Fold this sequence. Notes:
The chain is an all-alpha fold. It has helices at 12-42, 48-75, 83-95, 97-100, 104-131.
Amino acid sequence: MNSEKNLRPFGMRDKIGYAFGDFGCNMSFAFINSYLMIFYVTCMKIKPEHFAVLILLGKIFDAVNDPIIGSLCDASKPGKSGSIRTGAERRQRAVNPERIIKTEKEAGIQRNFLRILPLLTYRSEKVIRRLFPACS
C-alpha cells in the first residue's frame, strides 16, 4: 500500500462544510432542549431553575465523558479495516437485531409486539393526560 497519498489541502470549502454540520447538530440539540424545557416546566411542574441545573449537569457529564470515550477509541488496536471501523463493528455486533432474533418463533413474537405497540402508546398517552392535566 502506498503510504504517501495525494491529499488536497484543508480549504475554505472544508471549513464551510464543517461549519454547516456543526450548526445543524447544535440546532437539533437546541430544538430538543427547548421541547424538553416546555414539557418539564408546563407538564411536570419543574421550576425552570431546576431544569437549567439538569441541563448543566448533562453538559458537564458530556464534557467529561467525550474525551474519555475518544481516548478509548484512540487506544483500541486497529483491526484489518482500521480502528474506527473496528469499534463500529463491535458496537454493531452488540446491538444487531438479527443476532437477537434467532428463531422464527421469536420473530413472530416481535411482529406481534409491533402490532400491539400502537395500542400501548395510545393507552400511555391517556395515562399521561390523566397524570398531567396541564398538558391536555
